[in-house]
Protein 1
Amino acid sequence: MSGDAANATSTTLPRIDAAAGGPAGGGPGPDGEPPLTGLGASLPAADIRAKSEGTFPYAADLWAEGLLWASVLRSPHPHARILSIDTSAAAAMPGVRAVVTHEDVPGDSNYGRRVVDRPVFAAELVRHHGEPIAAVAADHPDTARLAAAAIAVEYEVLEPVTDPEKAFAAEPLHPDGNLIRHIPLRYGDPEAAGEVVVEGLYRIGRQDPAPIGAEAGLAVPRPDGGVEIYTASTDPHTDRDLAAACFGLEPDRVKVVVTGVPGATGDREDPGFQIPLGLLALRTGCPVKLAATREESFLGHAHRHPTLLRYRHHADADGRLVKVEAQILLDAGAYADASSESLAAAVAFACGPYVVPHAFIEGWAVRTNNPPSGHVRGEGAMQVCAAYEGQMDKLAARLGMDPAELRLRNALSTGDILPTGQTVTCPAPVAELLQAVRDHPLPALPKDSPEDDWLLPGGPEGAGEPGAVRRGVGYGVGMVHMLGAEGTDEVSTATVRVHDGVATVICAAVETGQGFATLARQIVQEVLGVDEVHVAPVDTDQPPAGPATHGRHTWVSGGAVERAAKMVRTQLLQPLAHKFGMSTELLQIADGKITSYDGVLSTTVMEAMDGKELWATAQCRPHPTEPLDESGQGDAFVGLAFCAVRAVVDVDIELGSIRVVEMAVAQDVGRVLNPKQLATRIEAGVTQGIGAALTENLRTARGLIRHPDLTGYALPTSLDAPDIRIVKLVEERDVVAPFGAKPASAVPVVTAPAAVASAVRSATGRPVNRLPIRPQAAVVTAPKG
């Protein structure tokens, strides 16, 4: 921050350091235990001290001198024409400093990360419930909310289009039309047919990211006419560019500073909360803060795409897949956002991690007047996983075959070809993963005694008769792509600086809970043997690192940190190598010491530094990909990750209550970089998947969000989380990935819902073709007579 703005705010951002990381020194621990630092060590999260001490600077806690508060007026209708907006009553209220509408946007009136189609404020039409109409800045948050409520908007309510199937024939909801993208995938012989054919219709609900910390931000005007925005952004450079275009400013006059992110699974990607803040700060000349309520959070950010899927699977008499036909319809809501990318993943992975010689998939993403959909962990892949695994269960039942055995007969492996025509060149141990969960011992049955009532579905107060409980075992096998797809230019830049035995990493990769800040410390410890490593706060004065999605920062930003650290290592070792007449490759760094292969040279890193400051900047850019063509063909993905889950559930077949007893997980991780952190990420992903399977559904009625709060939207709690057994981690390194590691969080989210649904089918014999699973879908009606 600069000038008066620097004096106007008391914002403090964390310096993430090694203090919370336990003992340092690198190399293995005592008695052959895992290393204490460096790659492979279970260092605690880099921000654990600040969070435990209550000093972590969440955006909702920020404050500045002369602070004003913002509130946003949102549409109560999903579809309406705006006839007039009268802000006079709001502007006249004591304490109100500014009111802005679409007329006050000095630059571009529309924004969008991928498609520029979303207005900052609705001007003529409202296209979804909760769309922003105006924003207010006042000297007290209650005054701001009252003023926003005092804005008089006259609407002509229109009939909403809420059925995505009707969107094709409906009047255009947007100047760009209702169809966002259509992908017709054609692979193999359309006349191919199998001896056994099963069909299914599947529906996937609208899952919300439901962050524990709702959106918040602080905008501070600068003396040069620019503005600084403090917020929990996960892609600050893109947010800066979008905001600058709307403000009518050059990007260098807008700065985004990343505050503490209270977790992110896609909900932090929409700058719609940040742009009104900046407009109000520029209008008033004062710092302006917004802290969204839970209702505003539900109304304002994107959700997982509700999806309708029709499938037909063909197989031979031995259970080998012959052809898959599918139709996939994604409800994008009012705006395009990430729908094109989500559809590409859904179509490409529509057959799952199975060998399918013939595939014909039609995929569409359409606009409706439902709440906007966007990036949520495992988008596209999660929806199709639930459907194709339902089809595999149907095939197994029709053939009288064990469901796990059917999956094993068709498992994808390295060297096989996806229906997109892309050869799988990365490790693909699908069969190994599935065998691991299949062979893991099953959990014991609960005892039929009063003290164990809590083990029954529904708990001690809601449980039915123990005799009505049936146990089911089901399987899910899923896949996700790593990094961006279809020609996305993936690149990240990092700087490593070492001085006085302290290393600093400067990289605009945002720590969203995925562990990048911890990984960056481990990389530098591993390469340079430096104990104390700081990770600088992120802002847009640094070179861009891209969004925190698809495991990008483990691969791309981690790779940039590694390359920069290796460049510093060369700078450190070259004088020693020259002095002793040897190559730097003959020197190694371990436990803070530099030694030569022959033992002639032995010194500490501190002695070799001798007070010098060394630094280097490097980039990492993976190999390019290409868009899918008009037949859905192309090398669209940098790499793939796989997971197998076996779910064990107990179902009360009279009440439809479901209790998940155990989830056994085997995952393809490439390389374990931080064992405890990896286990936590997998467990969290499985739990999020259980929520999608059983409870999480942001319900709408004619486009209106019902119960936008955490009482109406049921997140799984610790009481809902089952035993999660990580039975196998396959460490077959991907040779094109830095460290050989693969992303860990998304693929268990994708796979877990399918496994739970499979287990409920096993317990009840019911088709279970909708997520989340409703109680009536698990009720088994007793035969009459």
Protein 2
Amino acid sequence: MKGLTKLTAVSLAVAAALPMMANADVLISEYVEGSSNNKAIELYNNGDTVVDLAGYKLVRYKDGDTAALDMVDLTDSIAAKSVKVILHPSAAITLPAGTDSMTGNLYFNGGDAVGLLKDDVLVDVIGDIPTPSGWGLDTTFQRNLEDLTASTTYDAAQWVTLEKDTFSGLGTLDAAEAPEPSTFTCNGATLTNIYDIQGAGDSSPLVASGSFESANEVTVKGIVSARSDSLYKGFFIQDAQGDGSPYTSDGIFVYLNEAAPDTIQPGTEVCVQGKVKEYYGSTQIDIKDEQKFEVGVVGDAPAAVEFYVADGETLAQALERVEGMKVKLDAGSDMKVTRTFSFDYSSYRNNMVLSHKAPLMKPTQVFEPNSAEAVALNDANMVNQLFVESDYKANDGEVPYFPDFNAETGYIRVGDQLTNLEGVIGYSYSSYRLLATNTISAGDFIRVDDRTNAPTVANMGDIRVASFNVLNFFNDAVGGDANPSNSNRGALAEDEMVLQRTKIVNALVAMNADVVGLMEIANNGFGELSAIQNLVDALNAELTDEQAYRFVEIEDVDKYDGKYIGSDAITVGMLYRPASISLDGAAQVIATPEQHAAEGAQTREQNGVVESSPSYDKYQRHSLVQSFSINDEKLTIVVNHLKSKGSGCIEDWAEFNENSEPADLQGKCNAFRVSAAKVLGESLNDVDGDVLVIGDLNAYGKEDPVAVLTDYDASTTDHVIRTASWTTLDGKVYERSGSVIEKGYGLINLNTQMHGADTYSYSYNGELGNLDHALGNASLAAKVVGIDDWHINSVESNLFEYGSKYTGDLVKSENAFSASDHDPVIIALSYPAPVVTPEPVDPVEPEKSSDGGSLGYLALMLLGALGLRRRS
């Protein structure tokens, strides 16, 4: 019988937690999930009296969720020993004349369990909770006539599985005939070896070029290495002997489009017959239609082979050699975490990504955009990724193959080397994936760059300046003042906000900086109920008076609406220690350009079709400037947070990049950020003394905005940098059309000067790079004694951050790790106290004492011995 699944432990646990109503009269007797809107649920009243359906409703458990979503509130009644059919309003289903029926919003899909509730108490259910992905897709289920009993847990033995769009039983209670059991046998069949199917190339030699399946079916025998009831829907088999060649895989995936029968378990010998298919790059044997398989003896599952990447091959090429096989990652595999366990929008599930030898680096962090080197690195990154998966979607806050995942001792960091994990190699969503078959512990991670409790420069130099993006620190949850947009991008509850603040404070205390530039702090002014005051109060509570901070406040004339720095919900801020450094004049604001383009301001053409642009109104946050005095020297610090890479500007629309990553890999609104960099450079041209530009520039190390502020020279490169069009500044037209930048403003990238180009403070989509910068003029650069990207955030799991929305029961920690998603950057500077040169003492004729001695001479000698001299 098709489609039978075993009652899972998870289902039992979920059902045990639900209120139950045993032996209810009304139950689900048929489930139809067919083509398009052909969806139906049939109910049966097994009692002897009419049942009023008021209070009954149908719900669904969507895509493995354990919480129900309402679908249909039932009406009228259902006669004794009778059925009632609920149809989707657009279903193309004809019912027998006189059938008791109604329409309702049946929007369940394959993978959704359907429940019947009475007064919000579960009465009956079809499908496990949580439900395996695709469980009921294109299927009709009819309940066995001899088992018409409601149940709050799903038992597949109660149901008969029928083909897609089978409607003949709806409206009646006629017994459905189960499909005849398979009579397929391998006896006498000519067997094809798995390694001959896989071959030594990227696709099977049995699939002709230009085709996606073999001309004929093959018969294959192998040992089951793993089941996949959810991710792939089938099972993996492996040749018992193999051919001993490292170039051909001994394993292959068998596609069923549903969970395999319980008789197929790891270690079982199975013979299958079907066509070989190349399904979007995955080599598999497709038996979903006729399900030709024969189960043999049960023995041991195939042992995992140690995975390695040979000299001269890419990770993708190495994985292709073992596609379908069970492998083990060991120390020799040299596989590093390049993205910690988090959400993957391609497969729409949580997973982790590994790369060979080292985490991936963002190409534009180390190479000029559009350069041959950047293109080559991007191509290399694409074939240097292995996704680590669990079969079923992980519960929030859990890593299925790492059960001791926790914020204190069981963490995962980018750069960790992973060992002792076993799994089968599959291919889906354009990537190779290891489907884990065992569990690992913290000891299986080799910590290449482990956590540290403080940055290396925390006590270096005479002062330290830090840049810290604090990931939307809002105090709305505790009654903070409003921001200009009256929106809260941060913690939604007081406990979340307190946890976030505690983590940030612990990081700031360890950094021991004398000036701190902040990004992504709520833009709600400077009053007692402002976010910056809230943070400073909590920070100073952990410090002595000598270590205490104040915040920099701009003058009223520079405040938007008399309160804010600009009009965004978030802003930049600055903290300083009065005991270490003194303000030198008032703080200033550098306004950044806005982009305002009316509808139709620009056109684009593709395939002869001309389109006019929609309107664009884009903004970016202003920069904050404060000069300081330290030991008679002037230091000017500028804190910045330029436009993000996510939302597009008119230049992206013009290049057809409004829904995709631009080809130069610099993200959206790059020219808009260049405009801001130009304004910033011009504003700082005439500033006296040392200048330090810090903050989140939303540009990696070699990208245009950083190049404009530093060493760009158009005469030495073919790479052209342009500002944005349709920009205004302070309400006046700034640039109608984008202009070409000829020369940068000469600041020095302090981080890359000291550590090289491959530094990082941020991780996105498995690639590392620096968005958080420290740029200085020549006099400032000469004073740098150390700089550190303190890796407490970029390489950590975002599941440890303050938010609880997607973390389930995961216990949070108050430690500094995952205090934000950006690493703080700390710069140690030398500002020694002035050296006092003693003034020479003029010789004086000593006054004679009565005994002929010299009192004056003796006094001078004594002062000299004590080291006391008249100071200049």
Protein 3
Amino acid sequence: MNFGARRLTLLTATVLAGVFCDAAAYAAVSQARGKHAAPVHPHVAPAHHRTAVDAKDAEAISVRVSRQALNGGGGMMRHEMASHSVQTVTRQYIEMQSPASTALDMIKNLPSVTVSTVDSSGILGGKINSRSLTDSDMGILLNGVPVATAYYLNQNVDTENVNMISVTPGSSAIDLPVTSAAAGIMDSQTMTPSHKFGGLMDFSYGTNNMSREFLRVESGDIGNSGIRTFASFSHTHARNWNGPGTNERRHLDFGAAKDFEDGSSVNLFVSWNHQFTMEPLKPTAKQFYDKKDGIGTYNYSSSYDPSNPSKYGMLNGNMWDQVFVTLPVHIHLPAKFSFDFKPYYVYNGGYTYNGSLFSGAGRNATIGQGGTPISGSVPSASYYSVYRPHAGTVAKLNYDPVSWDHMELGYWFDYQDNQVNNMYSVLQTNGSQYFPYNTSKGLYVNGTRYMPYQGDAGWKIHSLFFQNTAKFLHDRLTLNGGIKVAMINRWTVNGASSTPRTEQNQVVPLPQVGISYRIDQHNLIYVNAEGDFRMPDPGSLGQVYDAQTGGYVGNPYNPKPQYSIKEELGWRFDNDYFMTDLELFNYSITNRLLSTSVYINNQAISSTINAGNQTARGVDFMISAHPWHHLSPYVSVEYLNATMDSNILTTGTLNGQTVSDLLPTKGKTAVQSPHVHASAGLTYDDGHFFANGSVSYVSSQYSTFMNDEKIPGYLTDNLSLGYRFNSYGRFKAPKFQLNFSNLGGDFVRTGAYSLVSNAKAAKGVYGSTISASGTPTYYLYPRFSVTGNISVGF
């Protein structure tokens, strides 16, 4: 069945599922009229995880539920009931890891994702690959609200304030504010403020002069208002393990909650993050092996050379601020209705800078407006100043006509604007920078501040969605059908181009259908299918800067939107001893979007391109045990077979002429798609002493579309050891722990930072010679590190 037919089939199945659920529900309304309809609780634990009901007398009934009874592998896996794949790490596991860890560190043992991080301090970000896709194809959420890519994930929330992190690799709930979720969703859920006054403080110190301080205070219920809050602050400082420079992060979290007797609730979460980072260079394969063999170095220098400021480490950094606000409101309404309203706002802003040589020859250039003329080259800093507001809201009306049927009708609005200015300033004689907005030290050409690039790109999304979930056969059979229709307007404005504004509009239907059946109290099977849409980076719409001419040219790689159809078939088993999760998946992707280096007028430019069609098939398997003599093992494995289904348009040389041709990539293995990802973990926890160890293997993966360069398979490992002391007076559960990473000190590559089409010259489909398109660069796994942490509650 071709892609168009499968898309039509999915849409039809979604409509039929919704119609069937609605018809069944309304047929039962008359029978249920006048009766009390209990609310639907889709996440209630199975019967064997609920303790017996104790009836002391006719009016005294208590029900006890063990939260950890839903966990396996020491919190590395959780029992799930959804009709799609869900992979979750819980607070039990998170508490055993270093507080400096980010969500990326927490999920790297899940079968569906491979993670690349660049440091052990939790300050610098990283990258996620999932089933041949990247985090650009993933919805990265905090409390169900979009934040940013994995590179900025560390800025969202402190680890101590995270309750759980869930990855749904093949699906996204229809009411979530995302469209680009071909690789699914990663959602971190923050803690809810306690009803009692208290708090937590901890201190960490580790390798590379890493130090971290954290303090959280919870107000408890404030008077009789029912409002409770928490506020926390952390500070982290660390030296780069690879290359010169240090990184520093300051972070603030604040939460407030209010519950009402009728079931209504209001929750506020605010975070602020400020950081200054100096990220090391990403090496090529040759540079990596030279460094490994001790015969060279590729990184920035710790000393300043005015003839080559681009190599000075202190001139390659990033100053970044983020503010995140969300205020979800749930309102209980009469007549079986309820209403959810979730506004959000995310601000990102700052600048990155690099050392450079600025040539004033023939430009009428000056330092400052009308200041000292420049005739030759002067050391300078190039600044990319970024302002990125992102706001939106989800409004949803819920209706439960009967106890076993739930309907949702909603609207989602999303707006993001990315404003970028590239400006230059002269350097001090010792290589130090001036403040980038100091106009007296800025570089001017013809009396105007030199800004070779001034961009403004963004989008507006208006979306309507509807879904219906119905339960039959005493809640054993669940049917879900829904559709989201997104109307997207994206634009780019180039202030230095002759055609400054380009925009595009799309209307995209995104259907979903899911079925699950609980065979008995131990076994559940499910099937899920949905469509997904990803729009290209709005900046790819416009013209690109040609460094050779100093002007702008049209982008011949203007990419089309990516569309995916995903199917899942799964089985879960859970009893008092262990739990398993087995899933088969299939992805069909058209107009695959990838970021790579392309050549325009013989100039290498980073751009997003269409890499043709792609198919990804495989299996995920997870198994873990509930605690047995305080031991909880965990094993996961994914087998993935992802192939490119198209040749890539390019240019080659034939008979001395430049001609259009196709790079023969059809049938090649997709980039960043290891065939095997396997992890194993073991947890011991007797209430006082605890230990958690894990090891993960990722097989080789290609970094070029022609499969002529790859990363060999590699191992990563982690070990946590700790002890919880008895509480003493006001001091609650003092704890000491040690966290180790990369125990063997291996120097390995864990992922591709930049991709290229072909690292070696190739023969095109039509016979032309296609030159090598560049050299990939790579993420490196940080060397051995250890972090010690002391914490105490109060």
Protein 4
Amino acid sequence: MAKEESVSDLSRRQFLGTSTMLGLAGIGLSAGLSACKDGGAQAAADSSAGAAATAPAHGAGHNPHKLPGQLDDYYGLWSGGHSGEMRVLGLPSGREIKRIPVFNMDCMSGWGITNESKAILGTKPDGTPKYMVGDTHHVHASYAKGTYDGRYAWVNDKINSRLARIRLDTFECDKITELPNVQGFHGIFPDKRDPVDQNVDHTTRVFCGSEFHIPHPNDGRDLESPEKYGALFTCVDAETMEVRWQCKVDGNMDLVATSYDGKLAASNQYNTENGIHYEDMMSAERDACVFFNIARIEQAVKDGKFKTVGDSKVPVVDGTKAANADPKTALTAYVPVPKNPHGVNASPDAKYFICAGKLSPTATVIELEKVLAWFDGKLDDIKKTIAAEVELGLGPLHTAFDGRGNAYTTLFLDSQMVKWNVAEAIKFYGGDKNAKYVVDRLDVQFQPGHTNASMSETREADGQWLAVGCKFSKDRFLPVGPLHPENEQLVDISGDKMIHVADHPVYPEPHDFIIVKRDKIKTRQVYNLDDFPLALKDPKESRVERHGNKVTIHLASQAPAFSLREFKVKKGDEVTVILTNLDKVEDLTHGFAIPKYNVNFIVNPQETKSVTFKADKPGIYWCYCTHFCHALHLEMRSRLIVER
């Protein structure tokens, strides 16, 4: 910051753009990152606008702070990045409420330790988790009637190509599906309405884009034949979490968007050249936003017009350009956009998808009615689906909406948010050079990636709050060594000017997030005992069962005691402990840990969990409650006695 402020002849925006361009020029990228030209589009507007709009975290704008005892107005559902988790924040306060273990192991909850969580995660033959790492990127939730219905949220694992579902009544992961035939699984989005049966006005499918080209099958053949590599778009059933079908495309896919009528899904694409090395991925001047005609794809699957890959039984249809030249039969449509776009987002008026340029200072507005017209053979040129392509600033990535016709796009290289009006942008693109589409600019700290606004991608976008995920925090927080936190910034967008009201450090590295009105989500505070087949209904049912060298301990917890004071096993036994929390009081969770045996997990009120381990160390092992529950919490113990 000190160095930035010492540059007297350059505005902050000009300095950031110039210094970044100089750095990129060394690797040959400057041509793709053309700056907004003087006298060009309005994106070259007064660079001081951002500084003028910036307000201190106090004294202006809505107050984000909640008094003790006050609840937040929104849930923020955040990805956890390479922690493999999902996070729940209260907004506008920014208070972190919960970390949901998904693709990671968690010592507190026992995720990855209990038998129930292992069954969801998937295991190797020896019972250990199949994977030990995850990389969550994008979080999206289920819809009904064009808005969130509070049932589910989904998050992806980019590393191991997995899709996880989180139940929003308990904020816990209940299913994980590994996608076949793909790598670099990145963007996801649920459909908002059934594409075939319009009477089904809720989420039925989740669409998944993949980035990396791989051979099909990826079993060692075609290793040195990149021209045979490919990427697949995947459809997963929202209820069963089974893979329905896949569609082969040209290029890599980044993010995913879906239309409100359910008919279209799309992914912005880079590397339509199908290159292997980065310089090959930027040779073309334009890439694409590929659209998927869902009803046609599913009809093709019904008609048997598909192949399978390797051992996978999933139907794979051909969505490549060459196979879809005739619009009337095409499964896909490739709308050209500037090279290497990053992000595609659906406007809440249901009319447009917006692709951000990344290596171009532009955003492309694509009209969905015209895309459908192209599929019907009523539009002679796919380029006519483009309603606007306007300059915004350097490094546009992601876009949010306020429900008042305005879009908010992150400018990674400018370290700014730009507020722009979609209708005015369309007018400008249509030739009205008096149309002023850029409404406001706001400096953020630093290099913003994802952004989202309250209820942004629903028909109920309310234009109250905007969150901005900044990839670098540098001098914003107390130094903690080489690894810095990231910086989530909160912006009041209720008025004409964006007002920055709060900063929050976050553990690296979150990506995308959504902001949901709190009344959309109805949680359960106590489990139903009948939901658990292994549950102990009464402490009197506590017992030790032996079948050969397999021993099962049926145990209950009620503050401040476990139902068995001790239980004996023999060295070499395979021991399964099934624990039911029989307390019915909200917020009365118990834990269960066994020293030296890698056992630690919690059970919430009326919940049952189990663990299995081999008793290979003779001796006394005190099993104790790890979660504070009662004044006699420290006395809440049982003895595991392992006999020789």
